[in-house]
Amino acid sequence: MTIEAGLGVFEVQGDGEAVAQRAAALIIATARARPPVGLLLAGGSTAKRACEVVAASADAADFAGVHVWPVDDRAIALADPGSNGGMILRLWAGLGYASADPRFHAVVEGDVAAQVAALEAALRALGGVAPRPDLTLLGVGGDGHVGGLTPGSAMLEAAGLFACPTGPRISATRGLITASKQLVIALAGAAKADILAQMMANSAGFPASAIARETVAAGGAVTWIADRAAAATLPT
């Protein structure tokens, strides 16, 4: 499999379920190592399935003391189906997480600017002035976006650790994601084949691949996990 130099390690799994299983295994291994800063987790169907696998494969002892942060979420009620944080809470209740848990840094309904400030303060309290997430899990949109970082968006240049891309949304910034010690980018399905091939050919043109390159340059480990359908148009 051909991958542009400097973008990390590329793994091809048989199908979307295998992608989720692999991502889940990396999350659990990081949790068991007692990460000092914790996990930065995206939403989306592949990430959701990975979280389901984690819930079925781990227990509360595996995640003792492990902090969870949002890659991207909406400032809505946790009970709303569109809340990524609410989704993780429902799936990971058996791992000991709850809405009042100080380890779980959810985006909720309310003042977005105040929540950005609170997330940044809490993250810096754990990781210092320049915190490094121990593992970040990303999905990739059809245009190559990750979280609230879309092609051409001002969010790509946002300072700080978290910012507001549009409306009642909060997203991790490019600087925070690229500081990750381990970055896992998961893609599944034929609908992702074209964008994956484009990113591998022109990493600077898309947020996901540009962030992968910058993470590698900063000393982080980047693992791309794709199923055969998503990788179908890549050169071998």
SSE order and pairing:
Blueprint: E1 9-13, H1 16-32, E2 39-41, H2 45-57, E3 68-70, E4 72-74, H3 84-91, H4 112-127, E5 135-138, E6 162-163, E7 169-172, H5 174-178, E8 182-187, H6 193-201, H7 207-217, E9 221-227
Parallel strand pairs: 1-9, 2-3, 2-5, 5-8, 8-9
Antiparallel strand pairs: 4-7, 6-7
Helix pairs in contact: 1-2
Key structural traits:
globular; 236 residues; 33% helix; alpha/beta; 6-stranded parallel β-sheet
Summarize the structure in words.
The chain has 236 residues and is an alpha/beta fold. The chain has a single domain, classed as 3-Layer(aba) Sandwich (Rossmann fold), CATH 3.40.50. 33% of the residues lie in helices and 16% in strands. It has helices at 16-32, 45-57, 84-91, 112-127, 174-178, 193-201, 207-217, and strands spanning 9-13, 39-41, 68-70, 72-74, 135-138, 162-163, 169-172, 182-187, 221-227. A 6-stranded parallel β-sheet has the order 1-9-8-5-2-3, with helices on both faces. Strands 4-7-6 form a 3-stranded antiparallel β-sheet. Strand 6 (162-163) and strand 7 (169-172) form a beta hairpin. The longest helix is centred in the first third of the chain and has 17 residues, at 16-32.
Order of helices and strands: EHEHEEHHEEEHEHHE
Biggest β-sheet: count, sense, barrel? 6 strands, parallel
Question: Which CATH class?
Answer: Alpha Beta
| Low-confidence blocks of residues | none
Termini Cα gap: 4 Å
- Beta percentage is 15-25%
Helix content: 25-40%
- The radius of gyration computed from the alpha-carbon positions, rounded to a whole number of angstroms, is 16 Å
Number of strands: 9
Class computed from helices, strands and strand pairing: alpha/beta
Averaging pLDDT over every residue, what do you get? Answer: 95
Number of DSSP helical runs: 7
Number of structurally distinct domains: 1
Spatial order of strands in the largest sheet:
1-9-8-5-2-3
Query: From the coordinates shown, what is the CATH architecture?
Result: 3-Layer(aba) Sandwich
Shape: globular
- What is the CATH third-level topology name? Rossmann fold
